[in-house]
TrEMBL record:
This is N-terminal kinase-like protein. Residues 14-314 form the Protein kinase domain. Residues 763-773, 780-793 have a biased composition (Basic and acidic residues). The lineage of its organism: Eukaryota, Metazoa, Chordata, Craniata, Vertebrata. It comes from Panthera leo (Lion). It is found in: Cytoplasm, Cytoskeleton, Microtubule organizing center, Centrosome; Endoplasmic reticulum-Golgi intermediate compartment; Golgi apparatus, cis-Golgi network. The gene is SCYL1.
Length: 806
């Protein structure tokens, strides 16, 4: 029978790195980097090779193995696994770096801040306090070589080779036999009797003073150098002097030393130490304390070390969200820490949390996610956006909170490039149509127009042809002045997506109507756009061969590159209106805003005169073009160029602030003159979106002219007059054709805009619709009354089961 001896080192679940050893504390141990075979996670492996004739060293190494395996404390080197054979000892710990090497590397990169050093020394002193006060153990080896640093920058106390019991039941302190370590022994041990030692912690506190000196000044050349504090901070010098005093009775207990350093003005009394102490006890903190902590954490993260944020703060943030119900307060610090991660780490740690957050019904979390989407949108892939994020985000369009609706619209600027055909060209356009037509907030309607102008390049050719012209035309009829400006700028920003026929027959007539707008800012932008479109038409007229080049983007599937050009006008619009909406929400967070006081547009002839509206003294009447503005107008380029890409289209933020200055509040005042022209949200239509094609489609305008009113009684038609001719007036009337044309003007001609769903802009107004509906109800009521009267007039009652005869 064969017996195979198994090599325990080969079967060990950890393996040494081929890199040369990093060194270690002076003594028998050698520190190697390693990794776990199953997962590849990094570890540190302390190796001791048993040598013949070194039984004393072997016993010291085995004692250190046992101590490290049994002692568990956050500030003591964490034991993971171990291997003990006749030839060697292997101790596996968390991945660490010796403090000496760590300080040297950080010095080359700019040095450690006092914040990091204060927390590191705090950890070492806390470990000594645990050993002395809780375990009655003397470390007996506190020095630079016994301290290690993990990947989060946490200092760990190791070097447990020469530890002994303070109660004396385990014998006296073991002999070191290493000159590099004996130089840290206190002077009272020089006589060898040890009778001068009065407190059990006195020797370790002297060695702690040596460690503090080395941290700030480098390697200790001799004990006499301790008299000069050197670069030790002034706030730490008094406490340091207590540690290296010649009288061992004066040296403080580790716990009292921490208390002194944490006093007001002390070296360890700072935000970094407080943050670490809170994180260590976060599991037992009250929810209110956690909320306050995470709210204040963002302000401090900029001054904290990057490794600390990645490896200590981030896991606590993820745990707080996953199990602590921290809510939206963790978002700001979470995304701030996420900047320190590479793409792979971000995908593994942050993105799963973000996707889960979008499914939350917490409004505070939703609005913070939308506000900070720019920080993580680049890490989201298209399937995740379309299947897990967009279905939740789209609910924000229907939210009753204006801030949620506005942030949802803004987020589409970032989500649009990643949306698929159905979500972008169907679902999103449905909600944009509804917002632009029915939302009672002017800034939200304006932002919808701005957003549509920027994402227009991502739409399909058929959607662009069906949506853009109608949407921007509707915006130019909005009672909110910045929305009309946004409509004009939308036409200009998407100029390359329109054919020459559309420019001449659809766009220019709309822009020309804005040249008599009550707001000067609207008129200025309209004139600029008109000149630009006319220049484009004129260039094609002069050289018809340019037509193909000019219209190359009209039928293109999509042109994402154009999004950069649109950014020059979309950025300010979103920013400017955002401030208005935030003011509006702060002023009236709960009540539904009333209609807005805005300068009224001139009433076309043939329409009923609007009811008088309350207009501030600074605004002008519709009979004057020049408006009195409180602020300064946007600076315009004196040279008018023909290309709109190089022009300054003005600042919508300044224009919006001007309108705000003319009104006390966007949510108060009367918009009586637009009572029948603007569309307000109706509870029934708010809940039923199945008929959005009919009620919120792009083809439905903001206002439609009503049929001409009948002439007053006694007014004679032109055909009733005898204009001096010998023939009677009932013969051919030269103005009869004009009357017939007015009656048939609503019918679309073959070459009219009606072929492109413009009938909504030329149909009867809401007042006319309401009057028509009232007449139908009256007719229906009369029909029902007539039927009931016929039934009553029938002769005799009808018998049950008999057949009714006509």
């Amino acid at each position: 029978m064969w017996f195979f001896a198994r090599d325990p080192v080969r079967d060990f679940p950890f393996e040494l790195s081929p890199d040369p050893p990093e060194g270690g504390p002076p003594g028998p141990w050698v520190l190697h980097r390693g990794r776990k075979k199953a997962t590849g996670s990094p570890v540190s492996i302390f190796v001791y090779d048993v040598k013949p004739g070194a039984e004393e060293q072997t016993q010291v190494a085995k004692a250190a193995f046992k101590r490290l395996k049994t002692l568990r404390h956050p500030n003591i080197l964490a034991y993971i696994d171990g291997l003990e054979t006749d030839k060697c000892l292997h101790v596996v710990t968390e991945a660490v770096t010796p403090l000496g090497i760590y300080l040297k590397e950080r010095a080359e990169a700019g040095g450690l801040k006092d914040l990091e050093l204060s927390w590191g020394l705090h950890q070492i002193v806390k470990a000594l306090s645990f050993l002395v006060n809780d375990c009655s153990l003397i470390h007996n080896n506190v020095c630079m070589a016994a301290v290690f640093v993990d990947r989060a920058g946490e200092w760990k106390l190791g070097g447990l080779d020469y530890m002994y019991s303070a109660q004396g039941n385990g014998g006296g302190p073991p002999r070191k036999g290493v000159p590099e370590l004996e130089q840290y022994d206190p002077p009272e041990l020089a006589d060898g009797s040890g009778r001068a030692v009065r407190e059990k912690w006195s020797a370790d506190m002297w060695r702690l003073g040596c460690l503090i000196w080395e941290v700030f000044n480098g390697p200790l050349p001799r004990a006499a150098a301790l008299r000069n504090p050197g670069k030790i901070p002034k706030s730490l010098v008094p406490h340091y002097c207590e540690l290296v005093g010649a009288n061992p009775k004066v040296r403080p207990n580790p716990a009292r030393f921490l208390q002194n350093c944490r006093a007001p003005g002390g070296f360890m009394n700072n935000r970094f130490v407080e943050t670490n102490l809170f994180l260590e006890e976060i599991q037992i903190k009250e929810p209110a304390e956690k909320q306050k902590f995470f709210q204040e954490l963002s302000k401090s993260l900029d001054s904290f070390p990057e490794d600390f944020c990645r490896h200590k703060v981030l896991p606590q943030l993820l745990t707080a969200f996953e199990f602590g119900n921290a809510g939206a307060v963790v978002l700001t610090p979470l995304f701030k820490v996420g900047k320190f991660l590479n793409a792979e780490e971000y995908q593994q740690k942050i993105i799963p949390v973000v996707v889960k957050m979008f499914s939350s019904t917490d409004r505070a979390m939703r609005i913070r996610l939308l506000q900070q989407m720019e920080q993580f949108i680049q890490y989201l892939d298209e399937p995740t956006v379309n299947t897990q994020i967009f279905p939740h985000v789209v609910h924000g369009f229907l939210d009753t909170n204006p801030a949620i609706r506005e942030q949802t619209v803004k987020s589409m600027l970032l989500l649009a490039p990643k949306l698929n055909e159905a979500n972008l060209n169907v679902e999103l356009m449905k909600h944009f149509a509804r917002l632009q037509a029915k939302d009672e907030q002017g800034p939200i309607r304006c932002n919808t127009t701005v957003c549509l102008g920027k994402i227009g390049s991502y739409l399909s050719a058929s959607t662009r042809h069906r949506v853009l012209t109608s949407a921007f035309s509707r915006a130019t009829k909005d009672p909110f002045a910045p929305s009309r400006v946004a409509g004009v700028l939308g036409f200009a920003a998407t100029h390359n997506l329109y054919s020459m026929n559309d420019c001449a027959h659809k766009i220019l007539p709309v822009l020309c109507g804005l040249t008599v707008d009550p707001e000067k800012s609207v008129r200025d932008q309209a004139f600029k756009a008109i000149r630009s479109f006319l220049s484009k038409l004129e260039s094609v007229s002069e050289d018809p061969t340019q037509l193909a080049e000019v219209e190359k983007d009209v039928h293109a599937a999509s042109s994402p590159g154009m999004g950069g050009a649109a950014a020059s006008w979309a950025g300010w619009a979103v920013t400017g209106v955002s401030s208005l909406t935030s003011k509006l929400i702060r002023a009236h967070p709960a009540a539904a805003p009333a209609e807005t006081n805005v300068p009224q547009r001139p009433t076309p002839e043939g329409l009923p005169a609007p009811a008088p509206a309350v207009v501030p003294a600074t605004s002008t009447t519709s009979g004057h073009w020049e408006t009195q503005e409180e602020g300064t107008d946007t600076a315009e380029d004196s040279s008018v160029a023909d290309r709109w890409d190089d022009e300054d289209w003005g600042s919508l933020e300044q224009e919006a602030e001007l309108v705000l200055a003319q009104q006390e509040d966007w949510s108060t005042g009367g918009r009586a003159s637009h009572a029948g022209q603007t569309s307000n949200l109706d509870p029934k239509s708010e809940s039923d979106w199945s008929s959005w094609e009919a009620e919120g489609s792009w083809e439905q305008g903001w206002q439609e002219p009503s049929p001409p009113e009948p002439p007053p009684e006694g007014t004679r038609l032109a055909s009733e007059y005898n204009w001096g001719g010998s023939e009677p007036s009932d013969k051919g009337d030269p103005f009869a054709a004009v009357s017939s044309r007015r009656e048939t003007s609503a019918q679309p001609r073959p070459d009219s805009w009606g072929d492109d769903n413009w009938e909504g802009l030329e149909t009867e107004s809401r007042q006319g619709k309401a009057e028509l509906a009232r007449k139908k109800r009256e007719e229906r009521r009369r029909e029902m009354e007539a039927k009931r009267a016929e039934k009553k007039a029938a002769k005799g009652p009808m018998k049950l089961g008999t057949r009714k005869l006509d």
